[in-house]
Amino acid sequence: MRAVVWSRRALLELTHAIDYLAQRNLAAAQRIELRILETTDKLAKRPIGRPGKQPGTYEKLVTGAPYLIVYALTDGAGGGQVQIIRLFHTAQDQG
């Protein structure tokens, strides 16, 4: 199984998204955060996503939440890593 490693930028995007949601609906924010984290955990076991817009990246939609995880895979000891690069709301410009 690969280790999941979040970039600083992706962690900030997660924090901002959850903080924004929590101001409006705490229960919804908790559900969305759980779904995002469950998705990244699944990527550690089975990294199946579509090829990303940038070379060497992949994208995975979060089931039941309007978020897209952009990640890269590395090989190495212990199975390598899933590097979470970005987290986008699906309505957000990804440029």
UniProtKB/TrEMBL annotation:
Name the InterPro entries for this protein.
RelE/ParE_toxin, RelE/ParE_toxin_dom_sf, TA_system_RelE-like_toxin
Q: Report keywords, A-Z.
A: Toxin-antitoxin system
Q: Which Gene3D superfamilies match?
A: RelE-like (3.30.2310.20)
Q: Does the keyword Nucleotide-binding apply?
A: no
Q: Which family does it belong to?
A: Belongs to the RelE toxin family.
Name of this chain's protein: Type II toxin-antitoxin system RelE/ParE family toxin
- The species this protein belongs to is Brevundimonas intermedia
